[in-house]
Amino acid sequence: GIILSYIPALLYYGQSFVQSFFTNRRMFELVAFPILIALQPSERELRSALYSFSILYLIVSLFVTFLAPDWVPKPDDSALLEEGDIIYALPGIRHVAFAFIFALQRVIKDNNSRNMGWAIFEFLLLFLIQNRTSLLAAIAIMMFLVYKMKMGPRKLFLIAVGSVFVLLMAVYTAGQWGHLYQETVEQLLNPDYNRNKAFVYMFSRRSVLQYLLGSGFISANVNSVIYDLQENGIYHSDVGLVGMWHQYGVIPVLVILVMMCKGFFGRKSFLVKAAAIYILVGIPTMSYYALGESLLWLSIYLYIYYSDGLPSFRDDHVTLKKVGWSGRRFRSLV
Predict the structure, then answer these.
(1) Residue 92 contacts by C-beta under 8 Å, 6 or more apart in sequence?
(2) Burial class (CB in 10 A: 0-12, 13-18, 19+), 177
(3) Are 222 and 15 in contact (CB under 8 A)?
(4) Where are the alpha helices (DSSP H) in 149-237?
(5) For the segment 216-260, what is each residue's pLDDT rounded down to a tens digit?
(6) Are 222 and 273 in contact (CB under 8 A)?
(7) Contact 334, 317 (CB under 8 A)
(8) CA distances from 333 to 200, 274, 300, 318, 323 (A)
(9) For residues 10 and 215, what is the distance between their CA atoms, to the nearest angstrom?
């Protein structure tokens, strides 16, 4: 699908196939998938790496937010945090979300205090980052986990503990949640909000060929269309799969949707299903191709999808049919 987008790029913008190849060089980062296949890291190794990344993310973000001198580059055009923000949201949010999913997988296997502590830490880090898409996906994943558990004393206990935790968070962080809600409503109702402008532009009239194959990723050396859009606050990466469809056509979008639906509805572990939920929830706003971390995230998803259930990967393997408790562990019924 990406290669087919070279055709409208040539016909409508005069960008040669060679130029399109090099303009889309970021896609080469998907080579991480065959590298993972070759290395065959286990779930435990991936989890440890993601935990380490989360700790490093928190340290660097706290440093940039509170301790860094003025000459250190900030991830926002304004030198100050917006009202209601807690720490700077640095690149790598998706990997923190993945660490949260891995932590929940461990809670399913063994709900001891250490595993619960990691899950709470990862969720709190997502809250500190204040990324609405990741928070919404994390809440959806937790609701899915509770739904798939068998009703019983342990489930009621977990719901009670979770409710107390959510209540305490709501009390002590009401201002931050209120700001997120108010900001979201204001942006959705504002026609000048970048994402609203981007949606309007993406659905503007184009040729049938562009609707099917996209318009291509156009280099600034060939045409100023991308630069002009960005000057007006319009970014393809802001509108998730819609932006991907506008540039690359329907085929890559269908591939993404099929991969996620097979992961969620197929006979897969909670790890794969939760990762699919995260990606599906982020469809309206999350870029899957414009950022290096997104391509790495997709590579990791593909790896756990195809490795799920293999002996070399399944040190923590859990399949979610209706699961129950056995002592301090969930019990798989398959």
Answers:
(1) 53, 57, 293
(2) middle
(3) yes
(4) 153-172, 174-189, 194-202, 208-213, 225-231
(5) 888 877 777 777 777 777 777 777 788 888 888 888 888 888 888
(6) no
(7) no
(8) 48, 19, 27, 10, 6
(9) 9
Identify whether the C-beta of residue 264 lies closer than 8 Å to the C-beta of residue 305.
no
- Residue 232, φ and ψ in degrees, nearest 5: -95, 10
State the Cα–Cα distance between residues 41 and 98, nearest whole angstrom: 15
Residues 108, 147: Cα–Cα separation, whole Å: 13
Contact by Cβ (8 Å): 78, 108: no
Amino acid (1-letter code) at residue 276: A
Three-state secondary structure call for residue 330: strand
Give the residue from 328, 298, 313, 299 showing the smallest Cα distance to 268.
313
Count Cβ atoms within 10 A of the Cβ of residue 325 and give its class: 0-12 exposed, 13-18 middle, 19 or more buried.
middle
User: For 26-84, how does the pLDDT look when each residue is reduced to its tens digit (9 = 90+)?
Assistant: 777 778 888 988 888 888 899 999 999 999 999 988 887 777 666 666 555 443 444 44
- Residue 255: count other Cβ atoms within 10 Å of its Cβ: 11
Residue with tokens 């590579």: 299
